[in-house]
Amino acid sequence: MSSPEAPSPHYVRPPSKGVRVQIFDTTLRDGTQSEHVAYSLEDKLDIAHELDELGVDYIEGGWPGSNPKDMGFFDRSVNETWKHAKITAFGSTRHAKNKPADDPNLRALVESRAPVLIIFGKSWDFHVTDALRVSLDDNLAMIRTSVEYLKAHCSEMLYDAEHFFDGYLRNPDYALRSLEAAIKGGAQCLVLCDTNGGTLSAEVARIVGEVRKRFDGVRLGIHPHNDSGVAVANALAAVEAGCTHVQGTINGFGERCGNVDLTPVIANLQLKLGYDCLRGAESLRKLTEASRFVYEVGNLPLRDNQPFVGKSAFAHKGGIHVSAVNRAPATYEHVDPESVGNTRRVLISELSGRSNLVATKGDRFGLKDDPEAQRKVIQRLMELENEGYVFEAADASFELLVERTLGRQKPYFKLHNFRVSVDVDEQARATTVATVKLEVNGQTEHTACDGNGPVNALDGALRKALDGFYPDLKDMHLMDYKVRVVNPRAATAAKVLVSIVSSDHRQRWTTVGVSENIIEASWHALVDSVEFKLNQVRKSAGKPAE
């Protein structure tokens, strides 16, 4: 009896369906309606070029005429070089009282000189009568004549059917007539919008299927919002039902709960469903980079648990998981991390087993073939994490933990004591002074330094004591300082975890300290930062630990 075939190391992409799905990115327009998102003109151009490198088909740059920044984007984009994407301008149908040529909104679209134009119109009769306050027939005329006018001034004309699914559920005949009006005007793609984000996937698939039967041969698109938490599922369901054009934003930015996040949509379409989008596997490997670029330009925190592109998307913490992934990645990974430009991470924590330690640090610290050293390090790790330490993002402090636990860390100095004092005058102005008393190479150093706050003063006093002995510290500086409460229920008596990011001209490293006293926690993180730097100097000089 033959043994079963071994599983593939990762999920195998199904054969291509031979169907291309267009990716329409509206990060620069719909995405900017998200709370906390604001881009300058230069930001928008930088993001547009990143999206072009990714390989999206359309970049919706904004609504010309609505604000000077968006008009500036289109003025600049005309003279930019675009490798693949088509720059698209967005607007609405004409006002009921205006002729198309006299409508300011339509004129602004033409003046944008964007090669692709897209407008939205009402497909829900409730919106027509209660929001626009025009007759149902007038709305259809507004759609047809607006599309018709703009079609003569661009190379490609798209139409967004706003609130289409809500409109179809209330009055399917009128919703379909609104699409017919756009087709009569010359629209080359009908985009069905779930504007309120309230439609579920089975309903989306059913309605798209019915629209496809009615408009056979017309390109259909989907524009889902995430108010029900199913925008990605809705986009995939719509494509399976016949849509070949998907509109969304990178990272799901957008009003209220956001637009559909294009990063899992693209990855699922290509890797799971066999559709072709972007420019193939090479473009797909740029997905994580593009996601993080958009966060960075917007000065927004990354969402670590974001599917496919998040920092934690392929992070393994449990020892059993790590042991299995080391043997066969498919045991706990649904796709190859590198297929979307991400990387596998094995985390060190109190949940770690020896597999985690060996997988991440074994070769680096000589632990791979030393079970007793592994046991000691894991035991010490558990003790410190029980106190509130977290080493997952603090590689420098973890390295020092290993070296100290195994007796391999050189004592660069010995602390006798330190003191921090803060004086506040009658104008509420604070003066901070730190003093440090150390023993360095058999000599006692007693220094003082004032600073902008207790941590800055303490850092200055420590450096002043050490600089004469370790001149390499002069090219080291602190880049970031963060405090997190470990046990918030203890209120002002709670422990805090201090995280410090340091850098020199070669690398960056992160250290941590924990205490009920924020100054003491800061001291531990500062000491680790200095000792890590001195370790790197020693290693680069080829000197062993003393």
Written account of the structure:
The chain folds into four domains: 22-297, Aldolase class I (TIM Barrel); 315-377, no CATH class; 388-412 and 470-546, Double Stranded RNA Binding Domain; 413-457, no CATH class. Helices cover 39% and strands 19% of the residues. The chain is built from 18 helices and 16 strands. The model is unreliable at 1-7 (pLDDT under 50).
Shape: elongated
Indicate the multimeric state. single chain
Strand content: 15-25%
DSSP E strands, number: 16
Uncertain runs are: 1-7
Helix content: 25-40%
Spatial gap, N to C terminus: 61 Å
CATH class of the largest domain: Alpha Beta
Main sheet properties: 8 strands, parallel, barrel
Number of helices: 18
Biggest sheet: strands side by side, in what order? Answer: 1-2-3-4-5-6-7-8
Which superfamily, in CATH terms, is the homologous superfamily of the largest domain?
A: Aldolase class I
Structural class: alpha/beta
Number of domains: 4
CATH A-level architecture of the largest domain: Alpha-Beta Barrel
Rg over alpha carbons: 30 Å
Task: Describe the structure concisely for a colleague.
This protein is an alpha/beta fold and about 550 residues long.
